[in-house]
Every structure is written in C-alpha cells, then in structure tokens.
Write a structure and sequence with these properties.
This protein is 82% helix and 0% strand. The chain is mostly helical and 130 residues long. The protein contains 4 helices and no strands. The radius of gyration is 43 Å and the shape is rod-shaped. Among the domains are: 31 residues; 39 residues.
C-alpha cells in the first residue's frame, strides 16, 4: 500500500509540475519593452519644440537680404527728410512759415486720429471678449 501511495503522489506531482509550466507559457502579462522603446514612448508624451535648421548658405542669404532691406528703408526715410528740408529751404520766408505750420497741423491731426482709432478698437475688443 505504501508503494501505491508513493506512486500516486509521484504521478500527481509530475502532472502538477507539467501543468504549471504550460500555464506559464500562456501568460497574458506584457513582456518588458525594450529600453529604447521605453524612452521613445516617454518622449512622445512630452511636447518638444524641434527647431529645423536650414543650410548655412540659406540662413546667410536670408540675413543678408534682411540687412539690405533695413538699410534701404533707412536710406529711403533719410532721402524723404532731405527732400522735405530742401523743398522748404528754397521757398520764400512767408511760404516757409506756412509750410512749417501745415506740417505741425498735419502731425497733430494724425496723432489725434491714431489715438481715436486705438481707443475705439480697445472698446470694441472689450465688447467682444466676454
């Protein structure tokens, strides 16, 4: 009898050990992800601003064009002022005074108009923000 119970116990333990290994093979646990994949997944959660650089020649050309444009604007403004001064200088004294007064009046009216437009836009902006 004793040998029969030992045989039963051995058969039972053998069947149990085989069934445990089969159950492990069908595990639904996720396998650990590769370490590089882990980092990329975490990186996707954060929003990074990626700056795309253009070739150096393109950047240099753009900077050069901007500088030239700035220089041209300054030169144009300077020439306009010089032309205005010259046109005033060649006039008679009475006309000079009248021209200077006209310039002052136009500047004052321009400032008032600009101020009025700004105040109007601020009010309308407040009206539509709500």
């Amino acid at each position: 009898m004793n040998s029969l119970s030992i045989k039963k116990f051995l058969i039972f333990s053998l069947i149990f050990s085989l069934s445990v290994s089969v159950c492990q093979a069908q595990s639904f646990d996720r396998p650990p992800a590769h370490r590089l994949q882990n980092h990329s997944r975490k990186g996707a959660l954060r929003s990074k601003t990626i700056k795309v650089r253009e070739p150096k020649a393109v950047e240099k050309a753009k900077n050069k064009a901007e500088a030239k444009e700035k220089k041209d604007k300054k030169a144009y403004a300077k020439s306009v002022k010089e032309n205005q001064k010259h046109s005033i200088e060649i006039q008679t004294p009475e006309v000079k005074e009248r021209m200077k007064q006209n310039i002052k009046n136009s500047n004052a009216s321009y400032k008032a108009k600009k101020k009025n437009n700004l105040s109007r836009s601020k009010k309308s902006g407040r009206k539509y923000r709500r």
